[in-house]
Each structure stands twice: as C-alpha cells, then as structure tokens.
Amino acid sequence: MKSVSQNQDYYSIFQQIQMQRVSNGQTEFILSDCQSAKKLLVILWPQLGDFDSLEYAWWLKRESQKLHDAGIVTRAIGIGDLASGQRFCEYTGFAETDLFVDPQAQIHSLLNLYRGLSLKIPNLSPTINAWLNLMLMCAGIGSPGTLAEVWRGYRGDRQAPQLLENDQIIHIKPLPAIQGSFFNRAGGSGFQRPFELATLRLRNMNEVLRNWTTYVPDSTYLTQRGATFLFNKQGNLLYEHKDQAILGFAADMSYPLSFLYN
Fold it and tell me: What is the pTM of this model?
C-alpha cells in the first residue's frame, strides 16, 4: 500500500479498506454495517499481544454500556492473524464482529504510523533485532513516557477511577487469586489504587506469554505503534491520536476514553 499524506481524508481511506473479519474469517470492508452509528471509533492496534492492545480492549469492555448508550460503533484492526484475533476476543471480551486482522501491518504503514525503534544490529536476525528494539522501548528509549506510565501503574493515580470492584476476583496463574478489596490496604478506594493497574498489566503479560505464538505469529512488527480516530455521522474527524510510545495509546492515560465524551 502507498502511504498517504497527513491531509488525507481518513474516513475515505477506511471506507475503501478490506481486511479479514475475526467473526467469520471473511475479507470485508471494515466500515460495513456502520451506517447507523452516531459516532464511529476506528482503532488501529499494534500486535494483538501488545500491552496497549490488551489494555485498550479492557477499557472498551469496561465502558461498553456507555459506548452503546452514546451510539458509538467501534471497529478495530490489530496486527495478527485469525487465530490471534480469536484468542484476543476470547480473553478480552472484545466482539469478534468488531475486530479485523492485518498480518503485515499494511494499514499502519499506509497511515505512516510510528514503527517504533528500528535499530538494526549487523549479523542479528530480524526477529532478534525486533526483540532488542522492543526491550529498549520498554526501557523508554524511542518510547517517551513509557517508564513514567509503568511507574503510575505501581504508585496509583488519584486522577484515575478505581479499576477493580472490591468484590472482583483477579486470577493470575500460578499466583493465588486476588480480590479487589485487597488494594484498599494501599490507600483507600474510589481512585486507581497503588499496584492496581500493575496487577492488570501482569495478568495481561501472563496471558500473552502463555500463548505467545498465537498472539504474535510474526515478530517483525513487535515495535509497531497504533492510532485512534473518532468520526461523527457525516464522517468528519472529531479526534485522532497516533501512538508514539508503548503504553501511550491515549492522550490521557488516567482515563483513556475521556475523548469520547467531550
């Protein structure tokens, strides 16, 4: 695919794109069945096994009723294959009808999205180079704000909502089950408590590592970042965010979906 300029009409681009839909395995237009939407949310996820993809899907699941009440229809495209998409939806609860897969990150390239750190060490395979770049990005190199966001997951955030109900049970094998009320001991309730977000991220990491080859069938695109676009009923762009870092999928990470209700 030929890349586009920044002035290109994103809605028109998305209208023309066809990808494999997870629900039926068929290649379809990604904006099919969106005509009744009051607003259209189009998300380009990195690898479906990426921290950002899983955490973003968690927020969408959490806010699903609000999105429905606001007439917001979601379409997401993630890097992976059909098996990746099926596992992703099974784990996150994201609707298979709303997810399309792009094995070679063609749409990300088309829209000039940030490919992430791309150092190439001679005599190392593309896979090893991709892993090296990913590790460096996790350390904040070529990924501004990542370390601060990791730290926020541990220290808590009084500007963010409480993430787990007190009676909610979190399972992270092989660790014992953790009840949401456990985090009250670290400072109270009614806000994102210390270690609360870090625990959710640990659960995501555990899920991906246990099913790595399913989530990441091709390591070439490990560092590729994604983007978010919100359109009104007429196809006018209301909001866009192009990721520049790991754990940087929103302008406001304390409440990543706040832009939907502004």
Answer: 0.94
